[in-house]
Amino acid sequence: MTIQNSQAQIEVVPSASTLIIEALKEPPRDRKKQKNMKHSGNITFDEIVNIARQMQQQSLARQLSGTIKEILGTAQSVGYNVDGHHPHVIIDNINSGGVECPAS
């Protein structure tokens, strides 16, 4: 929400988990009929970077690499793999310098 000249503008930004599910093009599910849904799939690291760029304004991370780690954590909690690997393995590779993150 931004206020400029006494005019309020509201932006609705989807959550990270919604963006991850949309990136895999899964059909929407009714949570009322089906409880404790498990997702499974494989998402590319480039899609994670694109989602991180969209979410960077709402993130508390100072750099894009921190936002990428947040999105990878969300992918882990949703149940997705990234390029065939568990998301926490990729987070460890980013911390050790094995995976290069874009600067911005």
Summarize the structure in words.
This protein is an alpha+beta fold and 104 residues long. It has helices spanning 16-23, 45-55, 64-78, 87-96, and strands at residues 2-4, 7-9, 41-43, 80-82. Helices cover 42% and strands 12% of the residues. The strands form 2 sheets. The chain has a two-stranded antiparallel ribbon with strand order 1-2. A two-stranded parallel ribbon has the order 3-4. Strand 1 and strand 2 form a beta hairpin. The radius of gyration is 16 Å and the shape is flat.
SSE topology:
Layout lengths: L1 E3 L2 E3 L6 H8 L17 E3 L1 H11 L8 H15 L1 E3 L4 H10 L8
Parallel strand pairs: 3-4
Antiparallel strand pairs: 1-2
Helix pairs in contact: 1-2, 2-3, 3-4
CATH topology: Arc Repressor Mutant, subunit A
How far apart the termini lie comes to 24 Å
Mean pLDDT figure = 82
Level-1 CATH class name: Mainly Alpha
What percentage of amino acids are in beta strands?
Answer: 5-15%
Q: Spans of 5+ residues with little confidence (pLDDT < 50)?
A: none
Name of the CATH architecture: Orthogonal Bundle
What radius of gyration results from the CA coordinates? 16 Å
Beta-strand segment tally:
4
H/E topology pattern: EEHEHHEH
Lateral strand order in the biggest sheet: 1-2
Task: Report the sheet with the most strands, covering strand number, pairing sense and barrel closure.
Answer: 2 strands, antiparallel
The helix content, as a percent range, equals: 40-55%
Principal-axes geometry comes out as: flat
GO molecular function: large ribosomal subunit rRNA binding; structural constituent of ribosome
Pfam family, one: Ribosomal_L11
Protein name: Large ribosomal subunit protein uL11
Organism: Zalophus californianus
